[in-house]
Amino acid sequence: MLNRLMIALAALLATSLLHAHGTHAGNIHVEQAQARASVGNQSNGAAFLTIENQGKADDVLQSVAAPIAGKVEIHTMTMEGDVMKMRALERLEIKAGEKIEMKSGQGYHIMLIGLKKPLKAGDSFPMQLSFRKAGKVQLTVTVMEAVAPQKSGQHEQMHEHHHHQ
Question: What is the pLDDT of residue 5?
């Protein structure tokens, strides 16, 4: 009896850990949802995550919502010399078999505009991603410590000093 109980608890723990690391909707798998803690009186922030299309057909991230911000947008970022250029995207195509890793200082990210309160390390907040085929994905974004600015390029200050197109 004790062995069965231990096996059941181990299975429950393993299932819980799997769900803590990612969320599925249809063929879309989302994991590693994080945001950086606010520095000073920042009114904007960014969330980073990994989206993988494990299906055989393309899908599209159409919108993102989070109650912590007045507006949430999908953004792309590029560096042109010392100038960071960000631009909002209406949608983000995720091709069949493709994995998109949103990382600070490069490529795509989720922009949190008009934060309703500062993002504090250790906190978390809900976010909803809406895909054309997979539907809605509910996830929890964990707020991580802010990282000190890098001396070359100052990528980490991207939400204070940037140029929107």
Answer: 40
